[in-house]
Write a structure and sequence with these properties.
The strands form two sheets. Strands 1, 2, 3, 4, 5, 6, 7 and 8 form an eight-stranded antiparallel beta sheet that branches. The chain has five helices and twelve strands. It is an alpha+beta fold and 211 residues long.
Length: 211
């Protein structure tokens, strides 16, 4: 069911996984989940510009073009406030290692490994069976794989640009798991210091131009 998010929807939600995903659930207090709260006073909510999709306990937010908003988007537009971080997992990482096909991709894998990330778990180069990982595919495409589905985060004609985005995203995902150079750092969402009017204008541009 899809409906308009309203000022009455002061929802407490949680998500297990990186903020590049878009699926949340009602807060249950599970220890491995990040916790979030909807800000019902947000101007975008007040003006009816955010939709809520509910399906078998799962919750997603959509813009009025019915394009899903990731948790990062929701925080960027201040629709969601982060209440608490999940502690890093202490599970032993296991995954299927990448098989890079070119010297550049071999070097890219080595760069990720040098950042203490786990191949086939935190990142994957080429085909992957990872449950949640940052991916690098043909055409210099950086993606986010979550529960078997990969969404594109960035694409470029430049290997160097795609490499930088890939390593940055993989390091942030690794940090959630207690690995890599970004552990202990807070990830910016890009609208820190903006006025409310600037945030609303950015959201309206998204509606006109797409994500």
């Amino acid at each position: 069911m899809i409906r308009t998010l309203t000022e009455d929807d002061a929802l407490d939600l949680e998500r297990v996984g990186y903020e590049r995903g878009d699926v949340l659930r009602a807060a249950t207090g599970r220890p491995d989940a990040h916790r979030y709260r909807v800000d019902p006073a947000n101007p975008l909510v007040v003006d009816g510009l955010v939709l809520l999709e509910e399906d078998d306990g799962a919750v997603r937010f959509l813009d009025t073009n019915r394009v899903p908003l990731t948790v990062r988007d929701l925080r960027r537009f201040r629709i969601l406030e982060k209440v608490a971080d999940a502690p890093p997992t202490d599970q032993e990482p296991t995954g299927v290692s990448s098989q890079p096909a070119t010297p550049d991709l071999v070097d890219l894998r080595d760069d990720a490994l040098d950042n203490d990330l786990v191949d086939g778990v935190d990142f994957a180069i080429g085909a992957s069976t990872a449950r949640e990982a940052i991916t690098f595919d043909d055409g210099f495409v950086v993606g986010y794989r979550d529960a078997g589905t990969t969404t594109t985060l960035f694409t470029s004609r430049s290997f160097a640009q795609a490499r930088a985005v890939f390593l940055d995203e993989a390091c942030w995902l690794g940090a959630e798991r207690g690995r890599g150079p970004y552990v202990g750092r807070d990830q910016a969402v890009g609208t820190e210091g903006w006025t409310s009017a600037q945030v609303v204008a950015a959201y309206e541009r998204r509606l006109l131009e797409g994500p």
